[in-house]
Amino acid sequence: MARIVQKYGGSSVRDTDRILSVARRIKQCRDRGDDLIVVVSAMGGVTDRLIALAKEVNPDPNEREMDMLLATGEQQSVALLALALHGLGCPAISFTGAQAGIETDDTHSKARIRSIQPRRIRERLEQGKVVIVAGFQGRGDDDAITTLGRGGSDLTAVALAAALKADLCQIFTDVDGVYTADPRLAPDARKIDRISHDEMLELASLGAKVMQARSIEFAKKFGVDLEVRSSLNDRPGTLITKETKDMEDVVIRGVSADRTEAKLTVTHIPDRPGRAARLFQILAAAAINVDMIVQNVSADGFTDISFTVPRADLDKIRRRLADRIQKEVQAEEILYDERIAKISAVGIGMRSHSGIAARMFTILAERDINIEMIATSEIKISCVIREHAAEHAVRALHTAFGLGRDDRGASDE
Ligand code: ADP
Ligand code: ASP
Ligand code: MG
Question: What ranges make up the beta strands (E) of 250-330?
């Protein structure tokens, strides 16, 4: 008998037909005798609708109340799934994150899991029940409901798999697995059979929303292998697992585009020690994650600093931080640019191959795509470009790096 954690994303429980079909899949597994812990997201689109509703009543909503609101999406879907299973004669019980023993810190909207006390889950498994847990939520220090960041049900699943020492953690979604690029952007993208935690972490952080980045960080830390697969068919998916030597043979595993960031430029800052520190301290204290940073060369004793942040945090910066930044950093103004995209190429093979950055810049230059910011690590290269060029750039890189279905030169099969 195996202990399996299964996670069904919003697209897999989009409507009651899909919920019933997920229930049938779960029942089949249970009939084989496996212990099942099922994590469910809100029905597709519900979280976005709740966010829009909140903004209608308050354009600058309080984060504690937002978490209270957003967590209701997952409460609907776990209860509906439990009811669907009962209808099929399968014993099941649903839990909120708090009931499941998921304890977090108090960073509303992107809380970190501190510990899991799975006592209730274990008791119910022993009674032969399928345990259904609301994804994306936990309980903070003062008992407030917290949420784990967009896409956070993936993290709930990984954390439960680690805490319960599950034999398998399956992520069910609306694609057959992790592809060499988002199949919506590059129609000839190929499914990857095996990918390392590090590559998946980079791809996820760089826009491949098929997995939440923090869930992969957690999976790597606790050695959890994940299988990403479709809830619509029985085809084998993608295994996300620890790195093996042969994985380095592939130079580029995949390409991605991220359109969720915005670029800010703080202009005419006195070029003196401590200004950059002050700027980023203010952002850090507001729990805003800064990604790329570029500082211009100072010519006249003043400098400009550009950096990217999540677009979702722009309102907060404008309303609550902009004045303070300007004053304390003594900047002239803050410019906001939401029309950017970050495109990236990722692969652990880059460690042992040179010239990949040059190739990437050449591919973009040949298509007349201007590069505004660059960031590299051992296994990735990212460029910020104009948003409208993102799709074109992803396709061009995907083809030129030989990732497409018709060109198996650089493939892993
Ligand atoms: P879920 O509702 O199951 O959590 P998501 O919408 O969060 O699903 O993630 C699945 C989507 O991720 C796919 O429909 C696909 O468009 C997108 N995606 C982006 N990059 C990739 C990639 N490299 N491989 C597979 N899917 C990707
Ligand atoms: N419902 C949440 C979201 O839309 C969490 C998730 O889907 O994983 O981000
Ligand atoms: Mg998701």
Answer: 254-258, 261-270, 293-295, 302-310
The closest residue, in CA terms, to atom 6 on ligand 2 is 151
| DSSP-derived 3-state class of residue 271 | coil
pLDDT at 409: 46
- Measured distance CA(401)–CA(395) in Å, rounded: 10
Ligand 3 centroid–CA 393 distance in Å is 24
**Close Cβ partners of 215 (under 8 Å, ≥ 6 residues apart):** 151, 152, 154, 155, 157, 158, 204
How far CA 408 is from CA of 71, 147, 345, in Å, comes to: 44, 41, 17
255 lines ligand 1 (CB under 6 A): no
- What residue ranges of the chain have pLDDT lower than 70? 406-413
Indicate whether residue 84 lines ligand 1 (CB < 6 A): no
Q: Distance (Å, rounded) from C-alpha 174 to C-alpha 280? A: 38
pTM over 0.85? The answer is yes
Q: Is the CB of 210 under 6 A from ligand 1?
A: yes
State which of 13, 173, 403 you would mutate to test the pocket of ligand 1, scoring each by most atoms of that ligand within 8 A of its C-beta: 173
Domain ranges of the chain: 3-174
Q: Is the dihedral of CA 271, 272, 273, 274 positive or negative?
A: negative
CA nearest to 22, candidates 174, 195, 188, 191? 174
Mean pLDDT of the chain: 95
Query: Among residues 174, 173, 157, 151, which one has the least CA distance to residue 225?
Result: 157
The Cα 119–Cα 265 span in angstroms is 49
State which fold the 3-174 domain adopts: Carbamate kinase (3.40.1160)
Residue pLDDT, tens place only, 168-226: 999 999 999 999 999 999 999 999 999 999 999 999 999 999 999 999 999 999 999 99
Terminal CA-CA length for the chain: 32
Residue 407's pLDDT is what? 54
